[in-house]
Amino acid sequence: MLIHARFAWRTVVLVLVVAAVTAARATAASVDGIPLHWTSAGAGPQTLMLVHGWTCDDSSWTGQVPALTSKYRVLTLDLPGHGKSGAIDAGRFSMDLFARAMEAVRVEAGVDRLVLVGHSMGTPVIRQYARLYPQRVTALVLVDGVVVLGAPPRPGVQPTQAPVPDRMRGPDGRKNREAMIRGMFTPATPAPLQAHVLKMMLAAPEATAYGAMVATFDPKNWTSDVMTMPVLGLFADKSALGNPDATKKLFPAYEHHEIPGTGHFLMMEKPREFNALLSAFVDKLPKAPAASTARKN
Q1: ∠ at Cα 81 (265, 103), nearest 5°?
Q2: Which of 79, 115, 197, 279 is most buried per CB count within 10 Å?
Q3: Is pLDDT of 6 > 60?
Q4: Is there a domain that residue 191 lies in?
Q5: 6 within domain boundaries
Q6: With helix as H, strand as E and coil as C, how does 125-146 read?
Q7: What percent of the chain has pLDDT over 70?
Q8: Least confident window among 221-230, 259-268, 280-289
Q9: Containing domain of residue 186, as a range?
Q10: Mean pLDDT calculated for residue range 63-71
């Protein structure tokens, strides 16, 4: 009798575990069959969604999430083909896919409107989301990303050349990627941070490195449509990517800042200064209904 009871209890436990796993999978966000890794923490009058850059992942925001969740709800995600989200072939990458991935996370999180924060490639990603889902956007925060393709930098700032996607694949692909990533650092970028960024970005599959770069510089993304929501630009010191005059033609309600002594990964290099500028901007926005849920998928 005791043996049967133990067997029955183990069976019940197994059923409960299977049911729990199935439920978690049923509620996980996905886009076009691609599972999406995302997190949610904090509560407050605004919900921020933090969107990483090319070949990065949501660990890009480790200097922001703990600090910001005391005031806001904060969502992060790994875009398709990046981090812990599902891998895809190079030909499937597009700004539309990335934007729809964000929308899948928004729906799963049960949020009405978002403050979108996009670093590097994340800048055209959040712009595309704002084109597709304008009713869901409270404000944009552009973090050292290209806004106007081909716009000259400000006087005294060295221009940069757009990367060549084909150089990101093939026998020399990894070497070329590493050289490009190292060019994003400054002499002041701490060695441990450099090591983290290199490990994170070089871990991305070749299909991601090539496909996401092709998607980023697809000419159809670079339109001159004007968006009237509040927009904050946070850029590296003397960044070649930041052109306030050109940006204000697209975003009339634009506010521009550079953080002295930073390179491309400014939010990781000087998180305190970055978070203070971001919070000051968000706190000026019209209040949204509070929401809170702590979650990872």
Answers
A1: 85
A2: 79
A3: no
A4: yes
A5: no
A6: HHHHHHHHCHHHEEEEEEECCC
A7: 87
A8: 280-289
A9: 32-296
A10: 97
